[in-house]
Design brief:
mainly beta; nine-stranded antiparallel beta sheet
């Protein structure tokens, strides 16, 4: 374990309740020793989605790199496009769905869901 990790060397992770999603774990306890934040690089296929769920003890930030993604956060619809950020407050009900093409995004969760 070190403090540097290349994307291609990051371990794969498929989050529960998600379909057509492959995440690469860039920052966490096992990759770089981070205790208070997790960062994933997400590859999402067309129609990929995360079913509605809650992180009761964590906030999340999504930075969209490629594609168009619909976020439903506590009943509000937000459309994420490249170079935009979507924030999900702690305890918020949220769901995610890719609208058209493949998408890529950076997901930051703090503190990590345990």
């Amino acid at each position: 374990m070190g403090r540097f990790l290349k994307l291609e060397d990051a371990p794969d992770y498929v989050p529960p309740g998600h379909s057509k999603v492959l995440d690469k774990v860039l920052v966490d306890r096992n990759t770089v020793g981070a205790e208070n934040v997790v960062v994933w690089y997400g590859y999402l296929e067309p129609e990929a989605e995360a079913a509605e769920h809650i992180h009761s003890g964590s906030e999340q930030v999504y930075f969209i790199i490629k594609g168009k993604i619909r976020f439903e956060i506590d009943g509000e619809t937000i459309i994420g496009v490249p170079n935009s950020v979507t924030f999900v407050p702690q305890g918020s009900r949220h769901a995610v769905k890719v609208l058209d093409e493949k998408a890529e995004m950076l997901v930051i969760t703090a503190p990590p869901a345990r």
